[in-house]
Write the structure tokens for this entry.
Amino acid sequence: MRRDPPTRRDFPVPPCTELSIVIVTWHSVGDVGPLLASLADTLADGAELVVVENASGDDTPARVRAQVPGARVIENASNRGFAVAANQGFAASRGAYVLFVNPDTVMHAGTVTRALAHLTTDPVIGVLGCRTLNDDGTPQPTVDRFHTVGGLVREAMTSRRGLEGAPRGSAPATTCDVDWLYGSFLLCRRAALSAVGGFDETYEMYGEDLDLCHRMRAAGYRVVYLADATLTHRGNQSGARRYGERRDVAVLKGTLRFFRRRRGVGAERAFRVLAGGSFAAKAALSAISILTGAPGEAALRARLYARLAWLCATGDPAARRERASATPGAPAPSSQGAAPPPVRRDVSEPGART
């Protein structure tokens, strides 16, 4: 694993006027305020702020405008998912560097400046993430490997899913190159993001970060974790609100989508067969334990594993839709991400109607 020296404090940092910050929100009115407060110095130094609001129906747009009057706020008429909204923000932004950050994060002092400085040390760095902490100050894993089918099956057989399951990934102690970064903080070089086509819009919420980093590395760009820049992440607030106990199912959908699009149909099917059998066995064991253990917890686990097994049996719904809409002789879906779509509506002016 390649390791970089610590970021030099005297390295010339690009002005913040070259940075665009994109935040995708969904029911984030209680989260976005602390994030914007932590970005105040960066915004005051000239960084551009683009917020894409995914039809929450709450006061998030008003909160953003009140706190950052110069922000560009794009309000979607429906929840279009993270990848589509992120591409909207990318298309609307102007900076040479684009930071995608979750609304339930808070930047520590100097984080954005250090990250921007390190990104510019090497033009081959395409995307950069940084050290992330939980609310209690413990390290939050935000780095992972490109798993093989066998590795994911072993994880399916040995790990425990649900709220009590151990977090995936790792939190390196030093700056290094990695396979992929979780999407709570992704600082991208605009040229690199454009070269790979932005985020793949077939992903709704989970898997788009894995897919983006995979395409970045395939295109010859580095994916780097920076250990001396820190943020706090309160942990997937939008995902918890949207999916609840079905979050693991949504994550598995993203995994199946990645395997099909980047590793091929054969790898996806192999994973479905092997992991599906493991999930089915765990569902049966959890159902049996209802009679001998804590019935409430066992019932929740049995239901979750049954859903995961069913998804493996039936496959990713997006794949079924692709097959249903395919015409004879039509080309296979592109291995690139979707090009950033045109921005449909900018309602950044106060009082604009949705």
